[in-house]
Structures are given as C-alpha cells and as structure tokens.
C-alpha cells in the first residue's frame, strides 16, 4: 500500500513525465550479497509488465484508475545492458480538440469526444490476441546454437574493451532453445573438460545484454540433481517480451556462456541462435569437438553439433543434421567435400559413411545433412549412447576432424504424470489407490524412473507396473518396472532401453500402467513432457493427497516446489483423478518453524486457479522467516476450494535445500539450534520454550515447578524461585509432587480429606493448601519482597509485603492485599491503615489508541484500548498482583 501511495505523490508532483519503478539488472547495481538476475521487465505495483507494453495505471483504492496517464515499459541502455523502466505521462494535452460544441467525457476515458464519434484517441491498443501468440509460438518453437570461439559476435566489457578470450582447451558447447507460453527454455551440453560456466547472457548483434543468468557460484557447484546426472545446463528465461521474441524469430539473437569470476572473465563461448528444421524431430544430439590426434592449432576454437532424428518403426532410419566449423583449409572455398561417419567406439566399426559437399564453406556456421537406413541393432546402440559421429576434411582427414558421442537430446526434459483411476468407481479402485510417476533420460540414454503408489492394500499385490505405448492400437507393453517395486515406490534406471520408447516418450504417448490381479488397469497416467527449470529442477515432486471425501477416490496431484537464487518460490502443480475446471481454487503454502503446540503459521496464497494445472513464481523474494521454515521447518501445500473454503488436497513438503544466496542466516551444519535462535523467534513475536509456542505477554509454568516464564518481545524470560521461609518445621512440613515449596499443615489439616484435592489458584498457577510462595511478576520475575500463603481453610491466597530494606525497594508503598482465589482480583483491606492500593487510573486522552501508538505510544497489555502516551509514566500492571507500584515505567518511543 505504501508503494502505491508513493507513486501517487510522484504523479501529483512531477506530472507530466515521471520515471518510476526500477527494473534494472541488479548485476549492475549490487544490492546485498544476492546475485540477482532480474529480467529487463517492469514491475508496477505487484504486476510484471513486459518491455514495450503500455497500460493505464490503476492505483487501487482510494485513488483508482488514472485515465489520463499512460504508462509504458521502455528499454534503455545502461552501459552494455538493456534494462527496463516504467515511464508515465499525462496524455490529456494530446487529446484532439473535438469538432463539436458539446463533447462528452465517457466513463473510463481521458479525452472528451463528440457524441457518436467512435474515435478513441486515449485507448491503448496494446493487446496482441492470444491466438496470434500461439500461432507464432507453434511456427517458431525450436532453436539451436553452436557455441565456439569462431563466433562473429564481439563481446566487450563495460568499458567497451574487447573481453580477452583464452579458450586454451578448445571448449565447445551447444544449446537448444524452446519457446513455450512466452518462456524460453534453454539447455546446453558443454565439453566435459570444462567446469560449469558461471553465467549465461542473451545478447543482440551489437553485444548489448538483453538477459543475464547466473549459472553457478564459485567452484562450478550445481545443486540440481537433474543437471548433475545429465551433465546438462538447464534454465528458463521467463516472459520474453515481444521485441525479443521477434529478434529470436529473425535469428538476430546470440547466446554467450561465461567462465571465470564475476570480476574477471576467463573466457566465453558464443553463438547465434538459429532455427533448424531438424529440431522438431530431434531424438539425439551430439557435441562435436576437435578429435584426438587432430591438429589443434589449425582447429583452434572450432566445434560442431548434430541434430539426430530417428524413425524407429519397421524399417528404421536416421537423419543427421550437422552444424559445424573449423575443418576447411584456407584454399577450400567452394564445393568442398566432407566425410561424415557414424561408428561404434571411434572408427572401429563403421555404421554410416557419407561424403557430403559444402557449397560455400564459412568460418562460423556450416550445415550438412545425411539420411540413412539403419539396422534395429544399430538403433539400439544409438539409443544407448554407444555411437560416435565424426565429420572430417577429405583433403586432410587426420588433421581436420571433429567427433563426439551421440547422446540423449540436449533439451532438459522430464516426463511426468499423476496415476489415478477413472471417476468415482469404488469397485474399480476400492481403496483409492493413487500415485505419481516421473522419468527422464540420463546422458548415457538410460531411463531414470520414480513411481510412487499409495493406498495399495496387501490383497492387491503383486502390482505390475509397465510402460505401454498408447499410440499403438494394441497398447504395446514396452518396459516392465515391476521388479523394482517396493514399499510404495519403484525407483530405478533402465539402461537397456528399447529404442521404441523414445518416439512415444517425447510425443507424450507413454502410459505408466499399474495393474493388480483381477484388474486390467487399476490406475494409470500418460507421461507428459515438461522442461526442467525452476520448480521442476527440485529433486523430486511431492504427492498431494485427497482431503475431501466427496472427491473421486483416486483424486491426487503432484507438486514441484523450489526456491531460486533470488529467494523467490517457484511452484508447479498438476492434479489428476477428477475434473477441476469448474472450481475456483487456491494454492496455499503454510509454513511453521516446527510442529509444536501453538506454533505460529504463515499462510501464503501462491495463486488462485481453475483446472488441473498451475505453475508460477512469487514476484518478490520470500521473507526470511518463510525461507527459514521452508529450509528447516515444516511446510504444507494445500489446494483449497475457494467458494466452499474447504481443503481438497494436501501434502507435507520435504525440507527444501535453499540456494546459498538465500540461506545466509544459518550455517548448514547447525540448523536445529538455529530454529530456536531467539532472534529468529523474536522476529515472529512468539516465544518458543520446552517444545511449545507462547504468545507475546503469556506466562507459563515449566517442567521445573520452581521456574516460571513469560514471553516478552519474542523471548521467553524465566525466573527460578527460592522458597520463602516457612513458619513450621518437622512433621508439619511436607512437599507435594509438582510443587516448588514446602507446605505447612498442622495435624488437623493433614488428616483432612481436603488435602491434595482442592488447591488455591493464583496468577494462572495452582498451589497446595498450606504452601508459601513468592508471586511471579512480569517483567521482574519472582517478587522476593512478597510472601504469599495458600490458606488451607478458605483456599484464599494471602500475600504480605515484606518491609525488608535490604532485599526490597526502599520507598515503595507497603502493600497488603487479599486475593479472592477464584476472582483473582485484589481487594482493599480497610483494617490495615498502611495498605495503599489503587486500581489503574484510566488515561484520559482525546486521541484514539491507534493515534497514540502511531505517535510512539506503548501497548497496554492489561487494557489494549488505552495505550500509554509516549513519555507517560505508569506503574506496570502485573497479572498476579495488579498494578505494581514499586516500579515506575516510562513509555519511550515504541516502534511497535
Ligand atoms: C553429482 O554427481 C556426483 C557424482 O555422480 C555426486 O557425487 C554428487 O553428490 C552429485 N551432486 C548432486 C548435487 O546431486
Ligand atoms: C590447398 O592448400 C593445401 C595446403 O594447405 C595444399 O596442400 C593443397 O595442394 C592446396 N590445394 C589446392 C587445390 O590449391
Ligand atoms: C571417411 O572417414 C572414415 C573414418 O573416419 C574413413 O575410414 C574413410 O576412408 C573416409 N572416407 C573418405 C572418402 O575420406
Ligand atoms: C485421471 O484423471 C484425469 C483427470 O484429472 C483423467 O483425464 C484421466 O482419464 C484419469 N485416468 C484414468 C485412467 O481414468
Ligand atoms: C524413491 O525416490 C524418491 C524420490 O527421489 C524418494 O523420495 C524415495 O524415498 C525413493 N524410494 C525408495 C524406496 O527408494
Ligand atoms: C494396462 O495393462 C493391461 C494388462 O497388461 C492391459 O490390458 C491394458 O491395455 C493396459 N492399459 C494401457 C492403457 O496400456
Ligand atoms: C491449624 O491451622 C489453622 C489455620 O491456620 C489454625 O486455625 C489452627 O489453630 C491450627 N491448629 C493447630 C493445632 O496449630
Ligand atoms: C468475584 O468478585 C465479585 C466482586 O468483586 C463478587 O461479587 C463475586 O461474588 C466474586 N466471585 C466469586 C466466585 O467469588
């Protein structure tokens, strides 16, 4: 709200042109320890606006829409970077003068127009129809880049000096790029000999940085298990603005990988992002590097990539498109033949050999294609990553040669599904079995799979889990995952994968089919391809369980949740087993420091949605407590029906490994004690003590009967009592279990039946008849100057103030009070003239409590409607004693 107010003030004071909001790449303006890679886009209020977009600002209640303002998200250069800014101006002056005498101002407009005139100069025509965007995405979906040192792009640093490029090891990389819903998913294979690059940049042909992502911190560490296992670099550039989508479409964008540190770039690889037809059917990829024994001087900085498609039907064939450079001699300028071979283990057994002519060899990118039938056996070798592709010069075959293994395709993809039965048929799925599955291919071409099944009863075993091809009529069984099924999970790796799995897998036609004796198919789900990035780069998804019994029995869901380097939360939820399209739902994250009575809960609505799928991210970094709770506490994800306010599905998340940029608050080896860190609990204004949470101002007894605590500013303050002297000895003195101090009971009471059952109550605690104790006072602890006694006859607590100058305050009034044990209020004792007791006098102020607090006043816990004025003196009010005159407090500007 305060942000909105500021904007409003700016508007009023700096019209007509104000520049507000910053959406800069904080890589330029370092703010704190986090290396953020904010995109060049604008944030207005809480909305993200893409570069080039225009809108009429809506400032919300009470200001509303400013119809005469036009805001725009404009790009501008900041050294080498293109960043975005919100620019707003008053368009009133631009209104054309109406041609009629009595123009009218229609509601929601800025300019007056003549009645009947359809011309609306003040309407922003900024919306591109979704169908146009979809069409465009369909025809401009796949891109690839070869990243070598032979790139035409000249990179300069911020001082416009060319960046030195010492690629001594001839590192090569290749990238694949796919646009989906305006997001650009990217993936790379990089030479094994290179460490993981530090950063990635998308740049235009001038070398201006359009987008920059940090890929790893120092040491090339990668926290993603998918990227670790597949040796790929994966990520996404979200919300590509239309200008950038156009650049991409026109092949005018470059990608750069950078090694070194933030301050010193050691070397870079760059390449132009191009469209290749073969990408639409790519099943395998290859990264080609200068071959062993080739002339590394002649071939310095060269490389290639292959896009391999295969038809795995009855007469298998393959198609290879190779993008490469570096194998031409200086005098080879036209119609130069190159030799392309596919062999088992580097030239031992040649499977394919073909000579192809390159009509016009160039320094940067050359493309050749071959197509050939292959045997089913060769196809199996191809699937298992055993074949080597090489491209060599015909004139100098040994010296000028590129080669590389044919691997799982570069794209970072996994395949996932929920497992459910159809509808609410209890006979078909009597115990409501449900589950999830996700699989991916590793760099060796093995299928890594994880299947989770719940509510499978003993009598339903053995269960069979198979992968079936749903694109064939017979739903051919391709692979059997059953042998690994144990304890609700089937986790494993298929290293002899049938080549017939690949095509249906990439096209979303593989079904995970769970059958039990007597049922054809208990539950199943179709694996659908998803790009690995953000939420789906988490180690594993979590199964959502049905909470609402009115939902079909196998209603289930899967949730991916991750925290990125900007400390923003990313989520991806898929629901199955029921139709959700007609429900208004909320995806809710609840976090707690731990499961304990009274534990404070933070509830965050991540998104409102309809349907079976929701994916997104918070637009701002999560606050520290929530990050702590995600990392070390307890988190629930819930799907809530918004209309009926009931829980539909729910799960407990495993603890999330936070990126180092978001976990500066605790060392990794010391997490449990950090949760109890008083400064942390203090931040949330609740006290944690002996496994329980207490609210600010609460007092409580502890496991030690002599110790009492209270909660102040989020810190438990505890004090241990030393018992008052008791006026009895020997056999008159006993101690009750759970009681701190001895009890004095003369024989008549000892034998009485009352003993042990009824007790005195005082200050929230119970005392045995005959016990002596000191009252517990907030904030000073046990008041050693007051002795209290639980009268065994009346069950009243009687307290006496000791006039002990050494121990007690010198000039405080001597109080003697009686406490009614049930009412717990003080009453005057008129029989004692030295009792000075008065109830708290109401503060008379003309200001409201809010005003008093806002002006630095202090909270009055006893009477919240009458806070103390800043500077006001008062006696504290103590739960067990009332107003405590021995202490005078003064309210000094309170920030709360
Ligand atoms: C990455 O892989 C290596 C070896 O395969 C393994 O030792 C390491 O723990 C993995 N790291 C992560 C983050 O998965
Ligand atoms: C091209 O240059 C190579 C040396 O780089 C030489 O051996 C060869 O004869 C030349 N070929 C032609 C056609 O000039
Ligand atoms: C092509 O390369 C293969 C091995 O790499 C070699 O055996 C073959 O002779 C070469 N063919 C031509 C025409 O150079
Ligand atoms: C599982 O649920 C989805 C809807 O969420 C449905 O489309 C699908 O048909 C169900 N699966 C089966 C085997 O019925
Ligand atoms: C299977 O893998 C999942 C996700 O990695 C893991 O949570 C689960 O414990 C594994 N189950 C078994 C039985 O190995
Ligand atoms: C699941 O497996 C059963 C038994 O093998 C088979 O009859 C059924 O067609 C399979 N269903 C699918 C969708 O593949
Ligand atoms: C026992 O205590 C009660 C209450 O304090 C008192 O009235 C009574 O006189 C006492 N009796 C003896 C024998 O001390
Ligand atoms: C509580 O105190 C009020 C007046 O102070 C008195 O009228 C009432 O009887 C007391 N209640 C009990 C249960 O002693």
Automatic annotation (TrEMBL):
This is Dorsal-ventral patterning protein Sog. Belongs to the chordin family. One of its GO terms (molecular function) is BMP binding. PROSITE patterns: CHRD, VWFC_1, VWFC_2. Residues 1-21 form the signal peptide. Residues 40-115, 685-745 form the VWFC domain. It comes from the Eukaryota. GO terms for cellular component: extracellular space. Keywords: Developmental protein, Glycoprotein, Repeat, Secreted, Signal. InterPro entries: Chordin, Chordin-like_regulators, CHRD, VWF_dom. Residues 139-278, 280-411, 412-532 form the CHRD domain. Gene3D superfamilies: 6.20.200.20. Its main location: secreted. GO terms for biological process: dorsal/ventral pattern formation; negative regulation of BMP signaling pathway; system development. It is found in: Secreted.
